[in-house]
Write a structure and sequence with these properties.
By secondary structure, the protein is of the alpha+beta class. Helices cover 19% and strands 30% of the residues.
Length: 242
């Protein structure tokens, strides 16, 4: 059998993404036979035995694709050293080991994908993917024209020049609703760590709620916080053809 990189093998086993595999290999948690693995190492899946945290890794034949409405208060990871709730705890009835694609911070909510298809996960997480993501963001004050212009202009966050972001005012509550602030609609084609919150902070806006409602053509339609469903055949094919 043709040899493959150990990162790909681990993602084929449905244990983690290739990016995460590199981190775990670097940390010395992966072994091939009796030797600590190295990043980029190639293995023969038929003759080599791969261990992760002392357990044998075996490829899974059934690919699983899930969309989940992540509630606030959950971290997008398989386990958390701080003891916080993880999104995988919400997947009642899912026997396969799946891992999340991308991220949403602890205080944010909305759409995330989980899968054991390492090839698709790697494709969607690649910076060049450019898949549009839609967020609705509630801020505590109504943005000024200057603040809206700044949000739609080139911006540097943490030394990184962001790709163009489209920001519009979605809704301003009426005086009778007794609600302050406004709801903004953000469309991003990348997802830097806490990007929207940092953008708002930079222009003087405070975020009170952040919800991701769509990734490409796939939306939260029909899902409530904490609930999940399998992606349809059409949705899977759409992601694979991107």
């Amino acid at each position: 059998m043709e040899k493959i990189r150990i990162q790909k093998f681990l993602s084929d086993c449905g244990i983690m993404s290739r990016r995460k595999a590199e981190e775990e290999i670097q940390a010395g948690r992966v072994k091939v036979n009796s030797e600590i693995a190295e990043i980029g190492q190639k293995i023969d899946p038929e003759s080599d035995i791969v261990y992760y945290n002392g357990k044998i890794c075996e490829p899974t034949s059934k690919k699983v694709y899930i969309k989940l409405y992540k509630p606030r208060g959950y971290v997008v990871t398989l386990s958390d050293e701080k003891g916080r709730k993880c999104v995988t705890e919400l997947l009642d009835g899912v026997k396969e080991r799946v891992y999340p694609i991308g991220r949403l911070d602890l205080d944010s909510e909305g759409l995330i994908f989980l899968t054991n298809d390492g090839e698709l996960a790697n494709k969607l997480m690649h910076p060049s993917g450019g898949l549009a993501k839609v967020y609705y963001v509630r801020v505590k004050t109504v943005p000024t024209a200057e603040q809206m212009t700044a949000l739609n202009s080139p911006m540097n966050i943490d030394g990184y020049d962001l790709r163009p972001v489209n920001v519009t005012i979605h809704r301003i509550p009426s005086p009778s609703e007794n609600i302050t602030g406004a709801s903004l609609r953000f469309v991003l084609r990348e997802g830097r760590n806490r990007q929207i919150r940092k953008m708002c902070e930079k222009v003087g806006l405070e975020v009170s709620r952040l919800t991701r409602t769509a990734i490409g053509k796939i939306t939260l339609a029909g899902l409530h916080p904490g609930k999940w469903e399998y992606l349809s055949y059409e949705e899977i094919q759409y992601l694979k053809k991107l």
